[in-house]
Amino acid sequence: MTFEAVEKSFRMVGMEARGEFSELGESVPALAKTMMERAAEVKHSTGIEIALFEAKRGEGHRTGRYVVGLMVEERQDAPSGMVYVEAGGKYVSGRAPIEKVADLHEKAVAWGGEHGFERNLSADIIEVYHALEDGEDVEIFLPVKG
């Protein structure tokens, strides 16, 4: 896995929910399935799936907000039951097969620390999903200060 520091912005339309951090492995895919059933309602979609996650700020922080949806090309009104979100800033980024997402996050945090980046726990963590012929890759963007 390779990592880099990037500055990037994102626009998306998606469905928002709150849940236990320990249950995101089940709740996020379920919400993504519901979202994809409504994908045709999203105007100017790039067709690329994206998710934003509130960062866990400590052991006592058990639930967080997340949004799953599609990247869009321009600002817009979201369909009923959906939200439009813009995010951006500086990130530590890396990409790997979806099966290695937990390892990817762990190694990105370590790489960022080794390279002098301090995590920005008040900004959303972003995952962008890339469909492949034989599976799916996930590209993560961990927000950093500076």
Automatic annotation (TrEMBL):
<dbReference type="Pfam" id="PF06445">
    <property type="entry name" value="GyrI-like"/>
</dbReference>
<dbReference type="InterPro" id="IPR011256">
    <property type="entry name" value="Reg_factor_effector_dom_sf"/>
</dbReference>
<protein>
    <recommendedName>
        <fullName>GyrI-like small molecule binding domain-containing protein</fullName>
    </recommendedName>
</protein>
<feature type="domain" description="GyrI-like small molecule binding">
    <location>
        <begin position="8"/>
        <end position="145"/>
    </location>
</feature>
<dbReference type="InterPro" id="IPR029442">
    <property type="entry name" value="GyrI-like"/>
</dbReference>
